[in-house]
Amino acid sequence: MSTTVPTLTTAQLDGLACVRCGADDTEQQPTGDRGPDGAQLFACTDPDVCRAQQSIDTHFPLLAALRTKAQSAPVFVEHHLADGVPLLYGHKDGTLTVTYDPAQLTFESARELFAEAHALYPDARAVAFTNIGHIVTTSLPTDEPPARFESHGARCTVTFDDTRITKKQLLALMDKVVGL
Ligand SMILES: [Zn+2]
């Protein structure tokens, strides 16, 4: 396992762009190496695509210079998550950060699950996957209660507005709902 190369851009060190070619819009997979902040580093899955991107950089240096701060791809971070939560995502400094527990999910499963969830809850500030279903942090219309409980078969979606109730209040509310 090699350590990070000092010439990597911020986007590459944040796991947003391929460490070989700098592209942030190609199909990518983890390299197994980490940036200084612990972010998983990524590289193009297809070596031909990666080589093609590198040749673009050679011929169009101005285009390559634009790839120093990519924002279009989510950052995947491997980290232990408590309470059996396999995946959690939310925004951090304008970047979409997906945290998944490698003990529970592979990177591929995490990516699939994230893609599905992001399509379901595009406005969410954070989504946690739990053993009961999904907990979605978002804004709810002010004429609605600050928390909404919906069941889909055995699974349940809890949507709450974090500007109106705290996570602690939400958990107390959930205990009450379970007791009904
Ligand atoms: Zn590449």
How would you describe this protein?
By secondary structure, the protein is of the alpha+beta class. It has 2 domains: 10-65, no CATH class; 75-179, no CATH class. The chain has 5 helices and 9 strands. The strands form 2 sheets. Strands 3-5-4-6-7-9-8 form a 7-stranded mixed sheet, covered by helices on one side. The chain has a two-stranded antiparallel sheet with strand order 1-2. The longest helix is centred in the middle third of the chain and has 14 residues, at 107-120. The model is unreliable at 1-6 (pLDDT under 50). Zinc ion binds next to strand 2 and helix 2.
Number of strands: 9
Shape: elongated
Q: Which oligomerization state do the chains in this entry correspond to?
A: single chain
Q: Please outline the major beta sheet.
A: 7 strands, mixed
With helices defined by DSSP (H or I, 4 residues minimum), what is the helix count?
Answer: 5
Kindly report the average pLDDT value: 81
Strands across the major sheet, in which order?
A: 3-5-4-6-7-9-8
Percent of residues in beta strands = 25-35%
- Gyration radius (Cα, Å) is 19 Å
Class based on secondary structure composition and strand pairing: alpha+beta
Which series of helices and strands comes N to C?
Answer: HEEHHEEEHEEEEH
The rounded distance between the terminal residues' Cα atoms is 53 Å
Summarize the amount of helix as a percent range: 25-40%
Number of structurally distinct domains: 2
Heteromolecules bound: zinc ion
Poorly predicted segments: 1-6
